[in-house]
Known about the structure:
Elements lengths: L2 E9 L6 H15 L3 E7 L6 H11 L3 E5 L6 H11 L2 E6 L11 H7 L5 E5 L9 H18 L11 E4 H4 L12 H7 L4 E5 L14 H20 L18
Parallel strand pairs: 1-2, 1-4, 2-3, 5-7
Antiparallel strand pairs: 4-6, 5-6
Helix pairs in contact: 5-8
Amino acid sequence: MMLDLSVVLPVYNEEENLPLLWPELRGVLDALGLSYEVVFVDDGSSDRSADLVRGFRDLDPRVRLVRLKENAGETAATDAGFKASRGRCVVVMDADLQNDPHDIPRLLHEIERWDAVTGWRVKRGEGDSLVRQLSSRIANRIRSRLSDDTIQDSGCTFRAFRRECLRGLVLYRGFHRFIPTLLRMRGYRVLEMPVNHRPRRFGRSKYGVMNRAFVAFVDLLAVRWMKARLLRYEVAEDLGGDRVRD
């Protein structure tokens, strides 16, 4: 059944955050007056994250749990959520409480005019440690330089999409960071807009300086190659080009 909205949340060891996130998120979504589902994708968590989501599901059928057999990374969890979603619009956000659910109505408002909207954590310093800020700044500069793109905050995975944007989208490990660039390569209109960024309350970041800077550099070489080899042509004439029937 097609719904108005799917919210996808990759989850990895977030048992302290989920009991706070779910009621806040549910309150925001209920106020929208839309039909929706929330797809929690458990990426092989070793804590009680999956059990907590099952409890949410027992009380609200709009909750869904997609559990990966083992930890496969954020890109895989995001991709699994995209494939499981049934909404005309799809929002993806982190489950660590740093993304603010109250930004979702603003993202959806912009999606009426754009194909995709990606968040920009303008006040990043208020929510992260100095090391996290430094690693993110390095990674974003590398991405911008090598990808030749104007996205200010590629590391922000708080995004909204029209469903058609995700059809045929092929992701590789680590490429969740480059979804806006990949969509622009396919001709979709992508807007970057400021979003709130909240301090981390529990747990710690899964990313550091090395896996932000070095890994991002390697991944960007692949993206740069893809952009350079992208097929660009327009058909000027197709005389007698009736479709071949099976």
